[in-house]
C-alpha cells in the first residue's frame, strides 16, 4: 500500500528575512504562513537565530522563546506542522554565532565544556517550550553546523570525529529532555558525504537522531559538470537519499530530504519547474523517504545587502507572497503524488572509510557509477564495502545484486571518471 510523504518548505520570512526575530510581527508571519498553506504543503522548518535567542550564555531570552511559540501556534492554525532548528549557526552564506563564542571569548563550539553547557541549555529550553504543541515535530540541532568544523570555513572549530560523536549525543539528549518522544535530528551539508577530512561522518548522519537528513544542492559541481537537465543533476537528491542508506544500521531508517532548491543561474528560473518536477519524481522513487522540504518559502528581499545572488531568487513565493511557477509545480506534486516505490535491489559498493568520501563526490568513481546505473534504468542504492559480502545485511535490505564502481565504469576501483 502507498505510504505518505510529507511536503513542506523551509520558512524564510518575507519581511526582514530571519532578522524578523529582532522586530517580530505576528501578523506578517501569519500572512506568510497563509501563503505557504495555500500551496497545500503540510509542514515548515523554522530557524531561530542563535545569537538573537541566547545573546549571553546564561540568558535565553523569554520573549524570543515566546515569539517562537506564537509562530508555531500560528502554523497550527493553518494546518502546518513545524520542525525547529536551534543553533543558527549558518544561513545563506552568513554565520550567526553568539559573541560569547568568538573573538575575545573564542572557544570551540564542539568541545569547550562551557559552550556545551550553554548549547544544551538552549536546545532543551526551545524543545521544552514546544513540547505540548501537537504540531511540533521536533528539533534539528542546527543548520549545516558541520561547516564550522573544517575547511573551507575561514575559521573552523576543529574537532575529531569522536568529539563530534559526543557532541551529537549530548545535544540530541538535551532535545529529548526538553520534548520527549519527538523527532529530534541533526543535519549537515553534503561535505559529510563528500569531504575526506570532515569530522562529521556519514555514519553519524545515518545513525544519530530519529532519522537521516540530507541537503541536496546541485551547485556543488554536479550541475557545472553535467548540465542542468542531466541525469546526475535531476537525480542528485535521490542519490544522497540512497547514499545515506549504506551507513544506516536500520534497513528502513527514514530519510528526510530536508533541503533542496533550484539555484540560479545553474537552474534558470524558466527551467526551475521542470527541475523541481524531475527532482521530486526521483526522490519519490526512493523507499523510506520521510518527506521533501523545499528551500525556500519566500525570496530574500533585495532591500537586504550582500547575499550571494542566487539567494534572492530561491523562494517558491515572491516577497509580496505571490506564488511562482515552481510553487505551482510543487503544489501539484504535493497534492497529486503517489508514493509506492518498488524496492531497490541493486547496490553499488561504497567505501566505509570516511577518508575515501571524495569517491562519492561529483567526479568520483562512486558518483559516476551510480548515475551510469541510473541512466541505464537500474535504480541503484548503495552498500558499504564492509557489508557487501554479509548475507544477513543484504537480505535485510532486500539486495540481490551487488556491483562495484569498476564493474560499472570499466576502470580500477578508486579511480576518477572523466
Low-confidence stretches: 413-418
What is the CATH topology classification name of the largest domain?
TIM Barrel
The average pLDDT score comes to 96
| Euclidean distance between termini CA atoms | 42 Å
Side by side, the strands of the main sheet go 7-6-3-2-1-10-9-8
How much strand?
A: 15-25%
Which CATH architecture of the largest domain? Alpha-Beta Barrel
Task: Provide a compact summary of the structure.
This protein has about 425 residues and is α/β, with parallel strands linked by helices. It has helices at about 25-35, 50-55, 60-75, 115-130, 160-180, 190-195, 200-205, 220-225, 230-235, 235-245, 270-285, 325-335, 365-375, 390-395, 405-410, and strands at about 5-10, 45-50, 80-90, 90, 95, 135-145, 185, 210-215, 255-260, 290-295, 345-350, 380-385, 400-405. The strands form 3 sheets. An 8-stranded parallel beta sheet has the order 7-6-3-2-1-10-9-8. A 3-stranded parallel beta sheet has the order 12-11-13. Strands 4-5 form a two-stranded antiparallel ribbon.
Question: What is this structure's SSE topology?
Answer:
Elements: E1 6-10, H1 26-37, E2 43-49, H2 50-53, H3 62-77, E3 81-88, E4 90-91, E5 94-95, H4 113-130, E6 136-143, H5 161-178, E7 185-187, H6 191-194, H7 202-207, E8 212-216, H8 222-226, H9 231-234, H10 236-244, E9 255-260, H11 272-283, E10 289-294, H12 325-336, E11 346-350, H13 365-375, E12 380-384, H14 391-397, E13 401-403, H15 405-409
Helix pairs in contact: 1-3, 3-4, 4-5, 10-11, 11-12
Amino acid at each position: 500500500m502507498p505510504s505518505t510523504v510529507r511536503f513542506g518548505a523551509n520558512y524564510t520570512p518575507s519581511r526582514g528575512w530571519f532578522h524578523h526575530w529582532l522586530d517580530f510581527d505576528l501578523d506578517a508571519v501569519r500572512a506568510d504562513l497563509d501563503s505557504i498553506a495555500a500551496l497545500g504543503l503540510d509542514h515548515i522548518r523554522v530557524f531561530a537565530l542563535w545569537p538573537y535567542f541566547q545573546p549571553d550564555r546564561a540568558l535565553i531570552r523569554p520573549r524570543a522563546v515566546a515569539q517562537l511559540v506564537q509562530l508555531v501556534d500560528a502554523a497550527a492554525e493553518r494546518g502546518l506542522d513545524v520542525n525547529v532548528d536551534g543553533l543558527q549557526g549558518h544561513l545563506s552564506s552568513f554565520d550567526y554565532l553568539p559573541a560569547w563564542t568568538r573573538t575575545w571569548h573564542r572557544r570551540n563550539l564542539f568541545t569547550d565544556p562551557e559552550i556545551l553547557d550553554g548549547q544544551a541549555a538552549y536546545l532543551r529550553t526551545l524543545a521544552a517550550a514546544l513540547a505540548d504543541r501537537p504540531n511540533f515535530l521536533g528539533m534539528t540541532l542546527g543548520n549545516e553546523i558541520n561547516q564550522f568544523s573544517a575547511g573551507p570555513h575561514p575559521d573552523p572549530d576543529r574537532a575529531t570525529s569522536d568529539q563530534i560523536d559526543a557532541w551529537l549525543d549530548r545535544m540530541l539528549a538535551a532535545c529529548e529532555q526538553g520534548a520527549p518522544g519527538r523527532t529530534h535530528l541533526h543535519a549537515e551539508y553534503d561535505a559529510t558525504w563528500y569531504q575526506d577530512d570532515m569530522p562529521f561522518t556519514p555514519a553519524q548522519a545515518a545513525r544519530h537522531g530519529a532519522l537521516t537528513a540530507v541537503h541536496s544542492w546541485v551547485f556543488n559541481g554536479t550541475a557545472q559538470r553535467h548540465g542542468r537537465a542531466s541525469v546526475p543533476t535531476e537525480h542528485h537528491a535521490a542519490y544522497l537519499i540512497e547514499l545515506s542508506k549504506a551507513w544506516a544500521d536500520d534497513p528502513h531508517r527514514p530519510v528526510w530530504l530536508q533541503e533542496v532548491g533550484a539555484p540560479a543561474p545553474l537552474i534558470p528560473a524558466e527551467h526551475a519547474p521542470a527541475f523541481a518536477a524531475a527532482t521530486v519524481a526521483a526522490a519519490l522513487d526512493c523507499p523510506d523517504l520521510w518527506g521533501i522540504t523545499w528551500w525556500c518559502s519566500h525570496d530574500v528581499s533585495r532591500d537586504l545587502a550582500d547575499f550571494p545572488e542566487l539567494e534572492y531568487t530561491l523562494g517558491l513565493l515572491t516577497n509580496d507572497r505571490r506564488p511562482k511557477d515552481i510553487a505551482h509545480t510543487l503544489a501539484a506534486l504535493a497534492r497529486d503524488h503517489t508514493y509506492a516505490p518498488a524496492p531497490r535491489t541493486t547496490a553499488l559498493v561504497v567505501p566505509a572509510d570516511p577518508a575515501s568520501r571524495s569517491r562519492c563526490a561529483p567526479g568520483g568513481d562512486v558518483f559516476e557509477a551510480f548515475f551510469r546505473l541510473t541512466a541505464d534504468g537500474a535504480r541503484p542504492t548503495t552498500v558499504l564495502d564492509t557489508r557487501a559480502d554479509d548475507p544477513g545485511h543484504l537480505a535485510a535490505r532486500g539486495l540481490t545484486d551487488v556491483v562495484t564502481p569498476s564493474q560499472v565504469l570499466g576502470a580500477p576501483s578508486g579511480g576518477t571518471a572523466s
